Amino acid sequence: MDLKQLQYFIAVVEEENISAAARKLHMSQPPLSHQIKLLEQELGVKLLERGPRKIILTDEGKLLYKRAHHMLELADTTIKELEDCRRGHAGTLHIGTVSTSGAVMTDERVLNFHRAYPHIRFEIHEGNTVELIDWIEAGIIELAVIRTPFKRETLNQKYLEPEPLVALMRKDFDWCPDRQAIQINELQNRPLIYHRRFENRIENACHKAGFEPYIVCKSNDVRTATLWSAAGAGIALVPRIAIHYAGRDDMIYKEINCPDCISRLCIVWQHSRFLSFAARTFLDLFDGTQEDYLPEHEEEQG
User: Fold this and answer.
1) What domains can you pick out in the chain, each with its CATH number?
2) Mean pLDDT of 157-171
3) pTM value?
């Protein structure tokens, strides 16, 4: 199985037709069909079935299609890492980010890094924490900036500064316009919206304060929580950076004075894997933080 065969296979799957895939690849149909047949013979499985109108993937074909993208990405990353070694202080840094990590990527330290190494390019891959960790393990990215809590023992970790969760709401929800901070018990009987990532810590904080939270919506994206809050559905409990996603002038936020209502960003990378010059230098920007350390109130979560 070579990389060219994987490219052929992906083209056939995405075009759902061998003739269309051959045209896309600028080749004739018989050689393409032959390469797919050789791939099936080598793997010892049937990858494709001819349907009445389009190609249908077998279960084995679905698995290979998922892995083929990772394998091609890994090959491309490896080539670029070799180029880094040859060229010295140049190359590409493949880094993953969650939607609420924008403050890190525009930090003055990162801008200084860019000025010092103008020949290092950034390729930023955006996704959720689970996706980014999978991409690290697949070798697609070297580093990822993700948000706690998370759990993955195979990762080195460098924690950044803690960030409080805030109560983001429309002005007509504001019960204390003279204050910029609230206590957790003030959220009792108020409609709450939050990311599932913070579910355990928010609900534990509410239980410690002696009440059951009134939950309107849980989501898998902080941006969804802010949009629901902006629509007037309730109060979003989100990291402070997320207030920029509200997109309305009538939104306010209040910090929550509660030691459990804390999040932070963390840079992670794979144990025992080669890091490019660009990745090592990027990590050096954040010296002074602690690796392999779980701060107080940072319980792990899958």
Assistant:
1) 3-68 (1.10.10.10), 164-263 (3.40.190.10)
2) 89
3) 0.60
